[in-house]
Design a protein that fits this description.
The protein is mainly α. It has one domain (about 5-200). The protein is built from eight helices and no strands. The chain has helices spanning about 5-20, 20-35, 35-65, 70-90, 110-115, 120-130, 140-165, 175-200.
């Protein structure tokens, strides 16, 4: 595995993890609602959870996913339904009022890590990229290197999207602005679902 390959993978990883999708929309919405600090467990759960998932899929779980069509389709449609429900919850979330902090809570680290395993976009990315890893000895070197690359890239995007949400918190001071922002974040998730339903997950 050459340095040129790792640099290329890192550049590709940056473009993928910064692209709007379920994780990024959720972190931006959480940052806007709860602020950067309170969203940090969610942020780190995404930044660490996806590389961990990628590493395990690259070690062999990806082959199971590709070879069992029923599992593949169950993930596609089950994950799509979950994402649509999350999009609905974001779109209809009420504007936070004083004192809401005691009743509403951002995602925990463990919940964000677990979410990667029902996020079809994360599966598509992991399956596609793990199949492009070079062969190495021992065999786990390439999956580990790829996971570390995505950890670094993911830390930039996860913190960036959370900071973006937190930065515009004051701008969302009116019900109209707050609702418009949530509708945009929900729309990004819906667009991702449309792409998932049209994607060929067998490759």
């Amino acid at each position: 595995m050459t340095h040129e390959y790792l640099v290329g993978l890192f550049v590709l990883g940056l473009s993928l993890v910064w692209t709007p999708g379920p994780n990024n929309a959720l972190m931006a919405a959480s940052g806007a609602r709860f602020g950067y600090r309170r969203t940090l467990p969610h942020t780190m759960g995404v930044a660490i959870g996806f590389p961990l998932m990628f590493f395990l899929i690259a070690l062999g779980l990806g082959g199971v996913f590709r070879s069992v069509p029923l599992l593949r389709e169950a993930l596609r449609y089950g994950g799509a339904l979950i994402l649509l429900w999350i999009a609905y919850k974001i779109a209809t979330a009420p504007m936070p009022q004083a004192g809401d902090e005691t009743h509403e809570h951002p995602w925990t680290f463990s919940r964000a890590v677990a979410f990667q395993w029902i996020n079809p976009k994360a599966w598509v990315m992991s399956i596609s990229l793990s199949g492009q890893l070079p062969e190495t000895k021992p065999f786990w070197i390439a999956p580990l290197a790829g996971a570390l690359v995505f950890l670094i890239a993911g830390l930039t995007s996860a913190n960036g999207w959370t900071a973006f949400g937190a930065a515009i918190h004051r701008f969302l001071s009116t019900p109209l602005r707050f609702r418009a922002f949530n509708l945009v974040m929900a729309g990004l998730i819906v667009l991702t679902v449309a792409g998932i339903l049209l994607a060929d997950l067998s490759v």
